[in-house]
Every structure is written in C-alpha cells, then in structure tokens.
Amino acid sequence: MATALPPYVGPLGKAWHYGFRFICALIFLFLILPILVIIPLSFNAEPYFTFSEGMLAFEPEAYSTRWYKDIIDNEQWLFSIKNSFIVAFFATFLATGLGTLAALGLSRSHLPGRSAIMGILISPMIVPLIISAAGMYFFYSGVCIPPEWSFGMLEEKACLTQSFPGVILAHAALGTPFVVITVTATLVGFDHSLTRASASLGATPTTTFFKIIVPLILPGVISGGLFAFITSFDEVVVVLFISGFEQRTVPRQMWAGIREQISPTILAVATMLILFSVALMTVLELLRRRNDRLRGVQET
C-alpha cells in the first residue's frame, strides 16, 4: 500500500522516489508489451501477423473471432490440448510428490551434504534446456519398458522416447525443482516442536505427517504443483527431442504451425495460454498470502 512521503524528504529525495517508480514502470512496459500485443492481433479478421489499417482505425469488421473458432474446428489443436493436459497432470503429480518428499528431507538439520543435494535437485533449472533435452533423449533411447508398466499408454514394449511415459518423466524432472524450492521456503518457518508434541501424545509418524505437517505446508505444495504444471504445459524444447506425433503438445503444435503453416490461430492459442497463466499466477498469489497469514507474517 502506497504511503505519503515524510515531510523531511528534500527535493532530491522526492525526485529519486518518483524517478525510481517511473523507471520501474518503463521496465514493466518493456517486459509486458511484447506479450500484450499478441492479444489484439489474435482478433485480426485478416490472416496476417500485423495490424491492418482497419484494426488501427478501430473498424468493427476488422476484428473477428475466426481464429478462436479454428481451434475448436481443428482436430490437431484439440488433440494437442488434450495431450498437454494429460502430460501436465501426471508430470505435476510426480513432481509434486517427489519434490515435497525431497524438501521434507532437506529440512532436517542433521542431513549431511544438504547444500550439495539441493544443488543437484535444482540443477534442471540451471542447466540449459537444450543440454537437458539432449541428455534425456540419449538416456531414454536406451531405456525400454513393458506395456504393463505404462498404465495402458503403450501397446507393446518400447523405449521411453516417443512415448507418453517418457514425456511425463521428462516434464516431471523439469518441474520437481520448483516444488522443492517452494516447499522448502514454506518449511523455513515450520515449528518442529509440533511434530515432537504429536509423537509425545502417541501419534504415529504417518498420522503426524497427514494431520500436522501436510495441512501446514499445503499452500507451498499447491504452489509448487502449479509451477510444475505451468512448466510442463509450456515446455517445447524437451518435447521436440522426446515426443513423437502421438505425443504432440500445444507448444510443439505452435512450433510446427510457425514452421509449416503460418496462421493467426497460433496467436489465439497464445492468448488463451496467457490468460491461463495469469489465472494460475493469481491463484499462486492468493496461496502465498494465505501461507503468510498461517505463518503470522504481516504484509507491509
């Protein structure tokens, strides 16, 4: 919440105060304008990636929702959207489970080599994606799984490349670091005396985990899961290496659309992804505030 400047602030202080905010506004516009320009372009009635004269003159006939209708009428886009949600759901489930368990283990003060383990766990965020994708491709090419282990996703024994299990595992590996970081941040203010009190009252470790620990770290777990979901839904580099045609996701479909058939439908899909990301970020912010309230942190 903005507050008035103290009366003792001089002209230089006021100039710095408002100048700093002006610079921040310019940086914000620099970052956000390339994204926002996509939204009006997605309503272009013409099959171009530029603003027509009619759009600049705000003529109603220059705007159309034809590219949004094309998403519904195009089987490839619907197929890609379905695949993206399937992959993101299972990848988020794996990443959230593994990341939460890792964060709980790293919260133990007596764990040796915590810094090294944390560095290894968050390495997928640091290593360039092209390197991770190439490594996953060569590793998954040599790993084959029987069909009974694929939960119906494979009809015969096959390698992890060009398969749903392979894409899901790759996306889970990329999303796990986000879960580890968010849950670890939540555990910073965790009062471990609660678990000791629970044990002293006769509760089993399982009961303590689900009745004490999980409710307190749930906002961080959900936040990490949402980050993992966004990471999986927007990932394109790894998908280009790992997936085949049957595992084509929305980002890969957009990539193929830019290379093979230029169509403003891509802009409509991008607009939907922007709105979807904004909705998830809003949920993340609400969860962050709830987590702060649970930890007794006052907002300034």
Fraction of residues in helices? Answer: 55-70%
**How many structurally independent domains?**
2
CATH first level of the largest domain: which class?
Mainly Alpha
What is the CA-atom radius of gyration, in angstroms?
24 Å
How large is the share of residues in beta strands? under 5%
Principal-axes shape call: globular
DSSP strand count: 2
User: Which spans of ≥5 residues are poorly predicted at pLDDT below 50?
Assistant: none
Which fold name is given in CATH as the topology of the largest domain? Answer: MetI-like fold
Alpha carbon gap, first and last residue: 7 Å
Order of strands, main sheet, comes to: 1-2
CATH homologous superfamily grouping of the largest domain: MetI-like
Tell me the CATH architecture of the largest domain: Orthogonal Bundle
What's the average pLDDT?
Answer: 82
Largest sheet: 2 strands, antiparallel
Number of helices: 14
Element order: H for helix, E for strand: HHHHHHHHEEHHHHHH
Helix vs. strand class: mainly alpha
Provide a descriptive summary of the structure in words.
This protein is mainly alpha-helical and about 300 residues long. It folds into two domains: about 10-60, no CATH class; about 75-260, MetI-like (MetI-like fold, Orthogonal Bundle). Helix content is about 70%, strand content about 0%. It has 14 helices and two strands.
